[in-house]
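sry for the spam today, last one i promise. struct tokens for design, 111 residues
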């Protein structure tokens, strides 16, 4: 059996960056969701470029653009979302629900 293709949503966060590195180290083709609104956050941009040098694919997508989430999910076998709920718990829960809906729409989640 081949390696699963992984999408990490929140790959520049404290836990997310470690998951990206571990996924790559295990030989999984790894996509990292890159938000277009990342703007001039130089640290995050450098981290994303570092992931790309290690073999990750940067996939543009955003919670504010639902179709981009669906499109990103359709590219992979596994979605990992290590987003923290510490700062704004209700906002992050809504974002996770939106991701679950994108996973359903992409056909990954079946009941």
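last one done:
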């Amino acid at each position: 059996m081949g390696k699963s293709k992984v999408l990490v949503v929140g790959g520049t966060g404290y836990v997310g960056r470690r998951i990206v590195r571990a996924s790559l180290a295990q030989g999984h083709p790894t996509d990292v969701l890159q938000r277009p609104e990342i703007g001039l956050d130089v640290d995050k941009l450098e981290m994303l470029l570092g992931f790309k040098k290690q073999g990750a694919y940067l996939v543009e997508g955003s919670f504010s653009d639902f179709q981009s989430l669906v499109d990103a999910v359709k590219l992979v076998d596994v979605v990992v979302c290590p987003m923290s709920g510490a700062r704004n718990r209700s906002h992050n829960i809504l974002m996770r629900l939106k991701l679950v809906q994108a996973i359903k729409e992409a056909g990954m989640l079946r009941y």
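The domain at 6-105 is CATH 3.40.50.720 (Rossmann fold). ok im logging off now
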